[in-house]
Predict the 3D structure of the following.
Amino acid sequence: MNKEQAEKIVREAQWVHSFELTHGIWTPGLHKTDAKAILNERFALPMDLAGKTALDIGALDGPYSFELERRGAKVISLDIQSPDVTGYNAAKAVLGSRNEYVQGNVYELDRILGGISFDLILFFGVWYHLKHPVLAFEQISKALKADGLLLFEGEVLKNYAENTDGSVHADADLVAAMAESDLPITLYYSGPFKKDQWNWFVPNRACVNEWIKTAGMQMTGHGFWDSHPHQRMYGTAVRQPGAVIHVDNPVWPKQSST
Ligand SMILES: C[S@@+](CC[C@H](N)C(=O)[O-])C[C@H]1O[C@@H](n2cnc3c(N)ncnc32)[C@H](O)[C@@H]1O
């Protein structure tokens, strides 16, 4: 494919991310995303992933998926949206990518992927769009190899909260105290948060840690980044050896009393 053909494909697709596909061809999305720098700086991810399998959940138009492929990984990208709608297939065509795309729900990973497990799973920008984030983390845990690594990123409570009518919560000290507390706390919105109807949970760091533990994993590192309107946490987790993922509520008699 020559440059003009590639530019035409890019022009005709819809993009959320702005990222360089190849040879100065950029996707014209609103969110500039340097996947290479993010994976290096936040996660210290090796440049050589040859022989590794990777799953990118919530891949959207694919900046992270294609960067993982560039590093030599065998990549499956999963998203609930069609890759024809998001621009993913346009990027794939321009790059001549061998990535596989699965359109599906993270809640059903186990069933959709037939029990395949991965060396690396990316879960970026998704948990706050889910009404059942713990279920998603449980599915991710099952899809992670025993020595695999989860890289995660998402909205957390740091310095900004809204009232349920969408106005900014005025008590900054309370918001900061909840954000920094070791008590696992999450905000939950049935209506829009940051004007987005599909934002539900805004957990604090301690709550994300508990979600991950419930799913049989252990957080191995984390950090924060702030760039209004985002207040975000990123980190890594591994499978906790011997961890059992419990059902929500066992039939009586219960094993333990609570
Ligand atoms: C904010 S975008 C994040 C895109 C990219 N991962 C990033 O971090 O920039 C959230 C993505 O998650 C996808 N998504 C939302 N709910 C999902 C679900 N239940 N299962 C799979 N993907 C989902 C959306 O379609 C969207 O592409």
About this structure: The domain at 3-239 is CATH 3.40.50.150 (Rossmann fold). The CA atoms of residues 5 and 12 lie 11 Å apart. The chain has one domain: 3-239. The pocket of S-adenosylmethionine is lined by residues 58, 60, 79-81, 105-106, 124-126, 129-130 (CB under 6 Å).
